[in-house]
Amino acid sequence: MKFELSDNPESLSISAYAPGWVRIGETLVKSSCVVTPHIFHQNLLPNDLTAINATHFEQLLELSPEIVILGTGKHQQFIDNQLIKIFTQKHVGFETMDTGAACRSFNVLVSDDRAAVAALFMI
């Protein structure tokens, strides 16, 4: 699926995604990644959602988000509530959804100048 939504040319957006990859701006990424409005990271997440832990979430908080969107792959998967409390204790919004929905949601939030972070696992 390809889509575009960019009112701020300085902000990153997810321009396309498919099984095994996402395109952030013009860069094709083929592993789990974290996207902010200004930079993306390929070393903050494990390659498999089942390996995610509190340390990963604490690293996401260091990016100063107001909301974190967790894209869990082809289907929405839920994670341990104890991990989610890491965000609620810091008053940071947290949502899980399939990765396609996470990509679309991230773009909408960034176009609204929100401090969103998308943590994406490949479809």
Feature tags:
single chain; 123 residues; alpha/beta; Hypothetical Protein Mth938, Chain: A; five-stranded mixed sheet; three-stranded antiparallel sheet; 3 helices; 24% helix; 26% strand; disordered N terminus
Structure write-up:
The protein is α/β, with parallel strands linked by helices and 123 residues long. It has one domain: Hypothetical Protein Mth938, Chain: A, CATH 3.40.1230.10. Helices cover 24% and strands 26% of the residues. The protein has three helices and eight strands. Strands 5-4-8-6-7 form a five-stranded mixed β-sheet, with helices on both faces. A hairpin with a 4-residue loop joins β4 and β5. It is globular. It starts with 13 loop residues before the first strand and ends with a strand. The N terminus is likely disordered.
Beta-strand fraction estimate: 25-35%
Overall shape: it is globular
CATH fold assignment: Hypothetical Protein Mth938, Chain: A
- In total, how many beta strands? 8
The first-to-last residue Cα distance is: 12 Å
Structural class: alpha/beta
The rounded Rg comes to: 13 Å
So, the CATH homologous superfamily? Answer: MTH938-like
Main CATH class = Alpha Beta
Poorly predicted segments: 1-6
Number of domains: 1
Oligomer: single chain
Biggest sheet statistics: 5 strands, mixed
Helical content, roughly? Answer: 10-25%
Order of helices and strands: EEEEEHEHEHE
**How does CATH name the architecture?**
3-Layer(aba) Sandwich
